From TrEMBL:
Keyword Kinase set for record: yes
Catalytic reaction annotation: L-seryl-[protein] + ATP = O-phospho-L-seryl-[protein] + ADP + H(+); L-threonyl-[protein] + ATP = O-phospho-L-threonyl-[protein] + ADP + H(+)
Protein name: Ribosomal protein S6 kinase
Lineage: Eukaryota, Metazoa, Ecdysozoa, Arthropoda, Crustacea
Domain AGC-kinase C-terminal residue range list: 338-408
Binding of ATP, residues: L82, G83, K84, G85, G86, Y87, G88, K89, V90, K108
Cellular component GO terms held in the UniProt record: ribosome
Family from the record: Belongs to the protein kinase superfamily. AGC Ser/Thr protein kinase family. S6 kinase subfamily.
EC number: 2.7.11.1
Entry keyword Transferase: yes
Keywords noted in UniProt: ATP-binding, Kinase, Nucleotide-binding, Phosphoprotein, Ribonucleoprotein, Ribosomal protein, Serine/threonine-protein kinase, Transferase
Gene Ontology molecular function: ATP binding; protein serine/threonine kinase activity
Boundaries of every Protein kinase domain copy: 76-337
Length: 484
């Protein structure tokens, strides 16, 4: 078993102001009305509206305060349960109102009272919401709405009906190299985009990679991201999922964006062999293997695949592929990707190796039936935070620009003007230990219990965290994945 940890240790716009100077009005700027009775009697109004180039438009909700769409729980119909966790639920929902009425989304519901108990959970939730708003990319889940009630937070995200890459890898056992190459290429572009925005992802694993209806990749769960990381700077947070965590995170020697490329190497190894590169019967031994164990590469891997994995899993950071200023470009130039047209990948012109067999937009066949068979109920909002506690969630509300554009488009009113005319391999019994060979409770839309995101809290201890010294410690607190 392994978990995802987060221990914060050391975390080490100039806008030009436009001054508007007002000048005193002269008498020449004044307009003198000689006959006030015209205004009193309404004749001036009648004269104006009766002009041939003036169009009278009745005031209504459709043409006043456009772009200010207000959305709440009442605007969504609960269709299916897609997952559960310690913080709440994820539902499949259908929009009932507005220009996107009838569209299917994923709705993540978070309990404020549970989140505010832990300062880190609060910070992670806010960071996740902010990143989802700021980052728009073809291979990153899209946030559509965010709103709140007295006791809950709601994130409305695009519904990814293809399910988790984890489930498809579980079903196939291992991927062929061309299949792995497809998924890795899209993931590289997503990670590279995050890095360009000063964001380190830090929790790359199959459970956090979902597929859309066409089979393309979407990264989800941004709760462990680190924002505002500039080139060459490091952070010291102990976080991630053990099997995919880079050595520098485990040793707490400071880490940067190169940790994501280690995780990509671990993910690539997992795809091609059926298990992460360093696993053991408990967390302590798994960590020891990551820090000191030998990397064993199966003989059936191609020379290019072996070389790429070796270069991504270099324990010395500055020797790791992607660690330099060129970032993801050095990965793109590797021979393993020699047949990849990166522009075609970015434009989603490459056919996915697997296209989900779906019957409709709201198909849930790629999700666990233990959840989808449940009756979807958003429990009553019983707890209400104090006004001061609620301040931490100020500014949570969000409406995607694309929604605002759709809202505005049908209601544009133009004044009349006389001047204008009008890829199957079965897992072999001889495969090494894999977390997917064990029986555990797995939550689609949430991190699994064996590889869950857990916050241990801040510590200034210079030794390894307690999880290293106590292999029997079991962290079961789960982090939400932000989307489906």
């Amino acid at each position: 078993m392994a978990g995802v940890f987060d221990i914060e240790l050391h975390e080490p716009d100039d806008t030009a102001h436009l001054t508007i100077q007002s000048e005193l009005q002269s008498d020449e700027d004044s307009i003198e009305v000689e006959d006030v009775s015209m205004l009193d009697q309404g004749s001036y109004y009648e004269t104006f509206v009766n002009q041939p180039d003036v169009e009278a438009i009745p005031i209504s909700e459709q043409n006043v305060n456009q772009g200010k769409e207000k959305t709440g729980p009442q605007d969504f119909e609960l269709r299916k349960v897609l997952g559960k966790g310690g913080y709440g639920k994820v539902f499949q929902v259908r929009k009932l109102t507005g220009q996107d009425s009838g569209h299917t989304f994923a709705m993540k519901v978070l309990k404020k009272a549970t989140i505010v108990r832990n300062q880190k959970d609060t910070a992670h939730t806010k960071a996740e919401r902010n990143i989802l708003e700021a980052v728009k990319h073809p291979f990153i889940v899209d946030l559509i709405y965010a709103f709140q009630t007295g006791g809950k937070l709601y994130l409305i995200l695009e519904y990814l009906s293809g399910g988790e890459l984890f489930m498809h890898l579980e079903r196939e056992g291992i991927f062929m190299e061309d299949t792995a190459c497809f998924y890795l290429s899209e993931i590289i572009l997503a990670l590279e985009h995050l890095h360009h925005q000063g964001i380190i992802y830090r929790d790359l694993k199959p459970e956090n990679i979902l597929l859309d209806a066409q089979g393309h990749v979407k990264l989800t769960d941004f709760g462990l991201c680190k924002e505002s990381v500039i080139e060459g700077s490091v952070t010291h947070t102990f976080c991630g999922t053990i099997e995919y965590m880079a050595p520098e995170i485990l040793t707490r020697s400071g880490h940067g964006k190169a940790v994501d490329w280690w995780s990509l190497g671990a993910l690539m190894y997992d795809m091609l062999t059926g298990a992460p590169p360093f696993t053991a019967e408990n967390r302590k031994k798994t960590i020891e293997k990551i820090l000191k164990g030998k990397l064993n590469l199966p003989p059936y891997l191609s020379p290019d695949a072996r070389d790429l994995i070796r270069k991504l899993l270099k324990r010395t950071v500055n020797q790791r592929l992607g660690s330099g200023p060129e970032d993801g470009e050095s990965l793109k130039d590797h021979p393993f990707f020699r047949l990849v047209n990166w522009n075609d990948v970015l434009m989603r012109r490459v056919d996915p190796p697997f296209k989900p067999a779906l019957t409709s937009e709201d198909d849930v066949s790629q999700f666990d039936t233990r959840f989808t068979k449940q009756t979807p109920v958003d429990s009553p909002d019983e707890s209400t935070l104090s006004e001061s506690a609620n301040l931490v969630f100020q500014g949570f509300t969000y409406v995607a620009p694309s929604v605002l554009e759709d809202v505005n488009r049908p209601h544009v009113i133009k004044a009349r003007s006389p001047r204008k005319p009008t890829f199957h391999l079965t897992r072999m019994n001889s495969q090494p230990f894999s977390p997917r060979q064990t029986t555990y409770q797995h939550f689609p839309c949430f991190n699994s219990a064996t590889r869950s995101s857990v916050d241990i809290g801040d510590t200034m201890d210079t030794g390894m965290p307690s999880i290293v010294n106590n292999a029997t410690t079991d962290f079961q607190q789960q982090r939400f994945m932000p989307m489906l």
